[in-house]
């Protein structure tokens, strides 16, 4: 469905950033024995985003990091010493900033604003103290104008190309546990108004055992206008082989807002990644974060890790692809895109 020119527009993730919003892993009751490894992965992500040169100067973007209290502030300050970081004493339920922070958008004059949406714990599955308030507090800390929308939207459920196309999944945004009074047309209208889209592209469903109900940032990512990266199963034993083949077919049949047939770039899947109980986890090499000078690619100790990092790197020739072990973060439910939220630089007037 096409829409008229909107007031605000979310730029593509590969557009320049001023900073990135993160949250220091803190809750021992949630992370348990995985907390040290989750912190190690967080530190590696932060270092990759900042991208220090040989002199110690940052080539990448600044880090805006939420901390729970004085104890965690001290731990984060020590762990991130030497990086361009600012710590914010803002309470949060857990570190999934993609979904609990605001989305930053450009106004028509190119200035920035913070777009805030409702949050209900991924359809009521994980309702944690303070998460619902993070977007307001981050918006205040950013000192940007705020736009507030009264419907539920998680940042990981939408992908934009910056040229009018918005990509999402039916499994998530048509799920009655999010906005039961909104049909497909109403959701398309709301997305286009908030994110600056003129066309919404839909895929059907996401990975097995994904508690987000098919967030798009684990299954299909815009990497350039008209180009979408997806995963390709390593073999027929891949637990998500059927899902991946369906996604490829669905995307290859669609056109973007400019009328271009989508080009689908294929990244090898990590294959089977199991938790400690032997259950398949929704591991995805697509949950990468596109920083100013690097792309941080989650890996899971599988044979495809090096090939996946190289394949993602080939899609971003002006950036350095860095593979970082994300198994501890995945134990909590996601990877690096899930725990980050970029704040873009101001853009030119439209």
Task: Explain what this protein looks like in three dimensions.
With 350 residues, this protein is an alpha/beta fold. The chain has one domain: L-arginine/glycine Amidinotransferase, Chain A, CATH 3.75.10.10. The protein is built from 11 helices and 16 strands. A 4-stranded mixed beta sheet has the order 3-2-1-16. It has a 3-stranded mixed beta sheet with strand order 4-5-6, covered by helices on one side. A 3-stranded mixed beta sheet has the order 7-8-9, sandwiched between helices. Strand 14, helix 10 and strand 15 form a beta-alpha-beta unit. The radius of gyration is 19 Å and the shape is globular. The protein starts with 16 loop residues before the first strand and ends in a 6-residue tail after the last strand. The model has no long low-confidence stretch (mean pLDDT 96).
């Amino acid at each position: 469905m096409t829409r008229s020119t909107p007031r605000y527009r979310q730029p593509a993730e590969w557009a320049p950033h001023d900073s990135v919003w993160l949250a220091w892993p803190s809750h021992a009751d949630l992370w348990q024995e995985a907390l040290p490894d989750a912190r190690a992965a967080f530190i590696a992500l932060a270092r990759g985003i900042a991208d220090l040169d040989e002199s110690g100067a940052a080539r990448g973007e600044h880090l805006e990091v939420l901390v729970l209290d004085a104890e965690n502030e001290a731990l984060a300050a020590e762990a991130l010493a030497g990086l361009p970081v600012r710590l914010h004493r803002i309470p949060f339920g857990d570190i999934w900033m993609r979904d609990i922070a605001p989305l930053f958008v450009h106004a028509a004059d190119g200035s920035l604003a913070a777009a805030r949406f409702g949050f209900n714990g991924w359809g009521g599955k994980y309702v944690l103290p303070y998460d619902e308030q993070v977007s307001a507090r981050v918006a205040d800390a950013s000192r940007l104008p705020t736009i507030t929308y009264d419907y539920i939207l998680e940042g990981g459920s939408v992908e934009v190309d910056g040229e009018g196309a918005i990509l999402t999944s039916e499994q998530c945004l048509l799920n009655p546990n999010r906005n039961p009074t909104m049909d497909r047309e109403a959701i398309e209208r709301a997305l286009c108004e908030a994110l600056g889209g003129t066309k919404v592209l839909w895929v059907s469903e996401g990975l097995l055992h994904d508690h987000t109900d098919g967030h798009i940032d684990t299954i299909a990512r815009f990497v350039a206008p008209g180009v979408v990266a997806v995963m390709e199963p390593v073999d027929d034993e891949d637990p998500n082989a059927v899902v991946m083949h369906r996604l490829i077919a669905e995307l290859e049949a669609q056109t973007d807002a400019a009328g271009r047939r989508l080009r689908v770039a294929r990244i090898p899947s990590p294959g089977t990644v199991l938790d400690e109980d032997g259950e398949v986890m929704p591991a995805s090499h697509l949950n990468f974060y596109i920083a100013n000078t690097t792309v941080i690619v989650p890996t899971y100790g599988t044979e495809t890790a090096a090939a996946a990092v190289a394949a993602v790197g080939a899609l971003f020739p002006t950036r350095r692809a860095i593979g970082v072990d994300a198994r501890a973060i995945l134990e909590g439910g996601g990877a690096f895109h899930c725990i980050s939220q970029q704040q873009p630089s101001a853009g030119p007037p439209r």
